[in-house]
Amino acid sequence: MRELDLVRRIREHAAAAYRNRSVVKGIGDDCAIVRPAQENDLVFTTDFVLEGRHFSLATHSAQEVGYKALARSLSDLAAMGSKPVFCLVSLAVPERLGSRWIDGFYKGLLSLGTRYKITVAGGDLSSFGSVVVDVMCCGQVQRNKAILRSGAKPGDFVYVTGKLGGAAHSKWTTRVEPRIDEGIRLSRHVSAGIDISDGLSIDLHRLCLESGVAAELDSALIPVASGATLDEALHGGEDYELLVTARPNARVPKALVTRIGTIKRGKPGAVTMDGRALPAGGYDHFARVRRVRI
Amino acid sequence: MRELDLVRRIREHAAAAYRNRSVVKGIGDDCAIVRPAQENDLVFTTDFVLEGRHFSLATHSAQEVGYKALARSLSDLAAMGSKPVFCLVSLAVPERLGSRWIDGFYKGLLSLGTRYKITVAGGDLSSFGSVVVDVMCCGQVQRNKAILRSGAKPGDFVYVTGKLGGAAHSKWTTRVEPRIDEGIRLSRHVSAGIDISDGLSIDLHRLCLESGVAAELDSALIPVASGATLDEALHGGEDYELLVTARPNARVPKALVTRIGTIKRGKPGAVTMDGRALPAGGYDHFARVRRVRI
Q1: What is the pTM of this model?
Q2: CATH 3.40.50.150 at A149-277, yes or no
């Protein structure tokens, strides 16, 4: 396939999806041009989805890879309580997969992108030995209103959206739903938040570390997905639910969350469950860590 | 190396570099937070640097890879006439390379970043079978003043900064300098622009395609780098000079550029040299195209 055709197809895909009016110029120049709405902060995140690490071509279709790549980054926007604006999509694929795979990838990505009103404003396309995806997402949030990891205080309650362990139980084959709407609704009430991408145990550890606090969980309160084990709910990862903290008197919408524990004074990052230390799943060595968000 | 240590080291690296005041919150949360200056447009670009494709571990040090990864994206900011603001760095590395390689990578990247006052505001770090880098850069430009590919008109003169073919002649081992300052100075005078990342022939073709025009080059005017051939100057790629067009009466700073040709009416994207068609180097098939900017 010729470059011109490839770019035209990707443009057509992107044009058929949502166009955010902040995006002045999308695909087709050296850079995308964005004119942010005033009185807003912008938030930015980027996430790899790597063949053999986050998916396998044997078990995931092109559409599923595209969906997953955007879902991961959208989940970070959700964790900040932000509204999606635009994304840049970097895609490297082996030549043998060809334009049909690329079409499927964009179809999956844009099915999710259209639902959450995010514009594909540009990116990079390269041939490479294995499939590598890196999706950068930008969201907007009212000035100074982004949910941070660092706002949790001793005495705060710990909450989680949805149920946990379902992704691990299904061997990470289900389509997750980024909690964009929930993040926006929760943002007015919470003191801190993070999305559960690598597992409740490690992501709560990360939140506590940034807040300089410890946390105690009650195992009986953890909402375990149907069929999953408590272990999968604690350490499984890729559920992409939101983990938030809020002052005890905050009017957190109860329909959105389950209370699972309490923030305490203690060694920053220390997490206990039923009074015993809860090791952060996979947290030991770089080789065993799925991903480091810097 | 433990995740905590890795993140701490990357934070330390980044903190020692330039901190743009638009970056409200950098490394350490789900997203970076940016508060853009009013009356500006923001421009965004992302570029892969892939092992075995853009560099080899046998011939490029970690510092050179880090430098190159940022230089490629900065060159896109230069092509828009924009001033660097912040970047997100996605890095995947084989475990065997370890923290020393990662340190070297950041050292190289930040040596360039500090010079051009760009803040590392976040990113992603993952272990993977080969080295994959994707650097997203954001720049700012006065509202409606970004240099576009699409502004060239018949009769405009075609200019290029610096000399061409040097990168290809050195087998892409030299450190290129992104033309940030030149882009900003040229932006008031030019009608269109692009950076020469893949070669003069293909990048002029791309500019003409977006502008709906053709171009004629004069081979005697092409500024060929010392030791390089005309062929390397035309098709070599990775020189990262700027290719711009301007009205004949524009006061383009002559010290910055060399005039090499003229924009004409004709088939959009058609480029001729000395009256004969100039095929865009490597432009034929996706497999032969180094990169597609979407």
Answers
A1: 0.92
A2: no
